[in-house]
Amino acid sequence: MKQFFKFVLASVLGVIISSIILFFLFFILLSGLILSAGSDKAVDVDANSVLHIKLDYPISERTPNNPLANLSFLGFDGEKAIGLNDILACIKKAKKDDNIKGIFLDESYMMSGQATTEEIRNALIDFKKSKKFVIAYSEIYTQGFYYLASVADKVYINPKGIFEFRGFSSEITFLKGALDKLGIEAQIIKVGTYKSAVEPLVLTKMSDANRLQVTSYLGSMYDHFLTGIGKSRNINKDSLFNYANSGRIQQPEDALKYKLVDGLKYKDEILSDLKKRTGLQEKNNMASVDLNDYVKSGTRADTDPKDVSYKNRIAIVYASGEISGGNGDDNSIGSETISKALRKVRMDNNVKAVVLRVNSPGGSSLASDVIWREVMLTKKVKPIIVSMGDVAASGGYYIACAADSIIAEPNTITGSIGIFAVLPNMQKLFNDKLGITFDGVKTGKFADLGDVSRPLTPEERLILQNSVNRGYDDFTKAVAAGRGKTQAYINSIGQGRVWTGTQALQNGLVDRLGNINDAIQSAAKKAGVKEYKIVSYPEQKSFLNRFGEGLTAEVKAHFVKAELGDNYRYYEQIKGVTKMMRTPQMRMPYDVVIR
Is the peptide bond before 458 cis (omega within 30 degrees of 0)? Predict the structure, then answer.
């Protein structure tokens, strides 16, 4: 028996020692990879090079601080991670780079929002002023990529390829039927005729008011889409509408016939054309550099905030994602994180003005108000200009409304001035489906307000409705004060209604149409500075700092995305519903998906 225990203990000890050794070996290997990937070794760009742009990944507002993004390790493929800030910086630098002779827009499945695509498209239009070429090629042209590619000098498609050109559609997923089957009732408290975020929980189809607003803003975005393509391709906008509406573009030959593309070519023919354009013979290899490497050639959109050598700075504070309390990250807005960043730039004498970059559908009304307060305080000290991305609606608009000026893209989705709360009644699920019942005692009539095991009483519903009404009153007052309008007027264009940037300019919710560079220039002008450096906030955490606190969730999300593909948005929608059932919300009506 003693021998037996001796061998067991020896085996256990061996396993423990082996695990420790393997852990340290893995840590050393991982550290080496991080140091190697994070070294940002400068990349030399050869003469007569082509900047290769392939945008087949979700484009975030700024490049994440992830040194493993472009590495493949133990079967894991690192995701491409060049953010919009560095994409724009690369195109801007390439315009003046003598080694870059042109840009090759390679087949891309645009997963970005329309305003993000607009920013890149405008950067390409500006690039063309250098007289350098832009060539676009794809086997499959989605409408999003074609809108981007339409500015190219030449647009080519594979002879057997697919060309999508059929108009916009927007689809909403309704969950009421599923909730009914589960025995869950969504109890809704809201203000706003058009505040339709809750419709998927209580209806099986769009309300008349929601259909009206979606038709309006979708039409506005489609009109801008056709106008842009018509101008780039020299085709009448009405003709483009008829091509799509009558389904005339079904084959690549149709796209060529109606002058939407310039030729049907295979990729080897495109590469041969690029060689000729850069003065190379067919037998030579083409010199090219992709965005990931071009960023390392000294192309960065901003300066390290810790670098104190620059006395005149314009700070960009990135507020991207859903709004919630506490800390956030590159893909979510935490009220504490953004408030801390605004306080930091407010008290930094080297920061002469602030650009608040908002790309958010909203979220917690309380967290939105916390950030709004910091914007108000910053405005009293130095200029603060808002630049709107794909979405700056509801809580996203609330945090923007106090700024000196608001700049949006024509196809930004904004407005949605309204507020709501959702409280589930799961009594039927517990009692009838699961056979679970509850009983207890309480010291006051409203002690168990918010209990999901029973329906709200009329008095409880009135308490919650008064709270939501007060929130809407605060919202409209804040917007009225920030925009110099009456509260009655804001209420008339509020009610939860969604607008495009073009429509918001007409009704006074934004001051002008433009991109983030326009916002930066506006901030500098208002601050009276001509020479300045850009610094970005919140400061991004290093990979090692993120290793223990959020990396597990990122890895999990990566695998879920890989498994679900395009259906990932439904998973996100269900997750969003659970978030809505916590606190009063200033949120977009739903996640807008435009095809």
Answer: no
Name the 3-class secondary structure at 320: strand
Do residues 286 and 271 make contact, with C-beta atoms less than 8 angstroms apart? Answer: yes
Helix locations, 234-286, DSSP H: 237-245, 252-257, 267-277
Q: Which sequence positions are flagged as catalytic?
A: 195, 394
The total number of residues shown for the chain amounts to: 595
| Residue-level pLDDT, tens digit, the chain, 595 residues | 555 445 545 555 555 665 566 555 544 544 554 444 444 556 788 889 999 999 988 899 998 876 555 554 444 445 567 899 999 999 999 999 999 999 999 988 888 899 999 999 999 999 999 999 999 999 999 999 999 999 999 999 999 999 999 999 988 889 999 999 999 999 999 988 888 888 999 999 999 999 999 999 999 999 999 999 999 999 999 999 999 999 999 999 999 999 999 999 999 999 999 999 988 877 778 889 999 899 887 766 666 666 656 789 999 999 999 999 999 888 899 999 999 999 999 999 999 999 999 999 999 999 999 999 999 999 999 999 999 999 999 999 999 999 999 999 999 999 999 999 999 999 999 999 999 999 999 999 999 998 999 999 999 999 999 999 999 999 999 999 999 999 999 999 999 999 999 999 999 999 999 999 999 999 999 999 999 999 999 988 665 555 555 555 555 555 555 455 555 555 555 555 555 555 677 766 555 556 6
Asked if residues 333 and 371 have their Cβ atoms less than 8 Å apart, the reply is yes
Please, is 403 exposed, middle or buried when counting C-beta atoms within 10 Å of its C-beta (0-12, 13-18, 19+)?
buried
Closest among 317, 465, 333, 353 to 394, alpha carbons compared:
333
Q: What is the DSSP string of 429-478?
A: IIIIIS--------SSTTTTTT-TTSPPPHHHHHHHHHHHHHHHHHHHHH
Token pair recorded at residue 267: 């990729």
Query: Within the chain, how many helices (H) and strands (E) appear?
Result: 22, 22
DSSP structure class, residue 399: T
Strands 322-324 and 351-360: unpaired
Give the Cα separation of 37 and 70 in Å (integer).
Answer: 8
Q: Which residues contact 278 (CB under 8 A, 6 or more apart)?
A: 48, 49, 50, 101, 102, 286, 287
Rounded Cα gap, residues 441 and 427, in angstroms: 18
